[in-house]
Structures are given as C-alpha cells and as structure tokens.
Design brief:
Its EC number is 2.1.1.107. One of its GO terms (biological process) is methylation. This is uroporphyrinogen-III C-methyltransferase. GO terms for molecular function: uroporphyrin-III C-methyltransferase activity. The protein has 260 residues and is of the alpha/beta class. It has two domains: 5-127, Tetrapyrrole methylase, N-terminal domain (Cobalt-precorrin-4 Transmethylase, domain 1, 3-Layer(aba) Sandwich); 130-248, Tetrapyrrole methylase, C-terminal domain (Methyltransferase, Cobalt-precorrin-4 Transmethylase, Domain 2), CATH 3.30.950.10. Helix content is 28%, strand content 21%. The protein is built from eight helices and ten strands. The protein has a five-stranded parallel β-sheet, sandwiched between helices. A hairpin with a 7-residue loop joins strand 8 and strand 9. The longest helix is centred in the first third of the chain and has 13 residues, at 76-88.
C-alpha cells in the first residue's frame, strides 16, 4: 500500500553553524555570505553586527537569541530545540554566531543536539574574535622576538578563581581573554596572584573591526581601572603580553638595544 503524499514526512533540513567573524561584513567567508543571503531562517546572536544581518534574503525570518551576562533571551536548551524543530520540518537553518562557532560559541553543544536528533550539521568557520581583534588593532598575537605561545581563555568560566593560570601568560606568551570585561578585576588579581608582574602590558579591544573600535592600553594592575574609566562594554577582548606594547615603546626599546 502506497503512502499518500500528505503522510510522507518532509525532508530534513540542514543546520549550518556559521561564524560571522568579529563584526565587519567584509571579513565574512564567501560561504557564510552566500548562506546568509539565501537561507530563509536565520537564528542569530546579539553580537552579530546589523550590517551582516542586512545581507539576509528579503524573505528570511530573523530570530534573535541574544545573550548577555545577566539575561538570556532564550536558554541554550531551547535554542537547541528550536534548531532541531526547524530542521525536522524541512527548513535549512543558518545559526549565525559572532566570531567562530567552535571558539567559545557553544557550537559544539548545538551540533551535538542536532546530530542526536538525526539532523545534518554543517560548520562554516569564521574569524574568531582573537585574530580579528588583533588584526584590527595591529597587535601580532605571535612575534619572533616576543611571543611564540598563544592561549585563549574564557573570562566568565565557572570556577575562575580555582583555575591555575600560572603558565598562560608571561615572557614569550600572549594571553587572550574572551568575555572578560565584567570580571576584569578578578582576572587582574588572579594573574598577579599566579605570578604575573603588575606592569605586564595589556590591551583592551572594544568593537573590533567596526567603525567605533577602541584600543585601550595599560599595565595589568590597572586593567580594572582601564575598563571602568573608559566604560568598556561588550564586545571587547583583553590581550595580555609584550605584543600589546605601544609601537613607539618597541621602537624606543630597539633603539636602546642598538646603542648598547
């Protein structure tokens, strides 16, 4: 007995976990831009720049699942359920995330939920905040003279004060802290407690790659004051290490070495 057309389930759609990069639409991958412009359902984070959302298909439905430290528009398990339900009804979905989906973007959790439900998943990497912000601020995360190791850390992770950060920053190393604005005081104190010198240079990069970008510099001990005085808000990244020193300081240092 043949099934009637109405009883045949719709084909399962694909969930595309797409990295939107640090903000500037010019930094999207070609694949990301193509999917944003052609997919009819886009589920996006709050940090995705409006100029990127403007690239969406005119008929696309845009669903914001913005999160902040104090308030989530939609809990993560509900976001997972939304992606799965949409795909099971036959819709392709673009899950649009700032930066890269697999770098502090909870993309792993969403991919697991989709696979568990039998929903195909495709990953479209994006320029993560660390590399995007560093490039925009012209801060090299590695440098042959001063840094051969880079570490990425979440500044709002659970058990922050209990973690051992003693080997993450220091001579020859660069430490990049995501989501650390609200916990800048705890981060500064922890790094100094774990052995980092108070005068290690720090850069705070706000709104990287966007017209309103700011780069603020100071010593590690002054990080909380730097954030508070300039009223730094998310999206912002903290970079710690010698690579963040002002270019003029590096030139003066080089001149002194030449004189010796």
């Amino acid at each position: 007995m043949n099934e009637s057309p109405s009883s045949i389930p719709p084909p399962v759609g694909t969930v595309h976990l797409v990295g939107a990069g640090p903000g500037d639409p010019d930094l999207l991958t070609l694949r990301a831009a193509r999917l944003i412009g052609s997919t009819k359902l886009i589920v996006h984070d709050g940090l995705v720049d409006p100029a990127i959302l403007a690239l969406a298909h005119p008929a696309a439905k845009l669903v914001s699942v913005a999160k902040s430290r104090a308030r989530h528009t939609m809990p993560q398990h509900e976001i997972n359920a939304l992606l799965v339900a949409a795909a099971l009804t036959g819709h392709d979905v673009v899950r649009l995330k700032g930066g890269d989906p697999f770098v502090f973007g909870r993309g792993g959790e969403e991919a697991e939920a989709c696979r568990a439900a039998g929903v195909p998943v495709a990953i479209v990497p994006g320029i993560t905040a660390a590399t995007g912000a560093a490039a925009a601020a012209q801060i090299p995360l590695t440098h042959r003279d001063s840094a051969s190791i880079v570490s990425f850390v979440a500044g709002q992770c659970k058990g922050l004060t209990e973690q051992d950060w003693s080997g993450l920053a220091g001579k020859g190393r660069t430490l990049v802290i995501y989501m650390g604005v609200a916990t800048s005081e705890a981060i500064s104190e922890k790094l100094m407690t774990d052995g980092l010198a108070p005068d290690v240079p720090v850069a705070v990069i706000e709104n990287a790659s966007r017209p309103e970008m700011r780069v603020l510099r100071g010593p590690l001990a002054g990080l909380p004051s730097l954030v508070a005085t300039h009223r730094v808000k998310s999206p912002a990244l903290i970079v710690i290490g010698d690579v963040t020193a002002e270019p003029e300081q590096e030139l003066r240092k080089l001149a002194l070495e030449v004189e010796k």
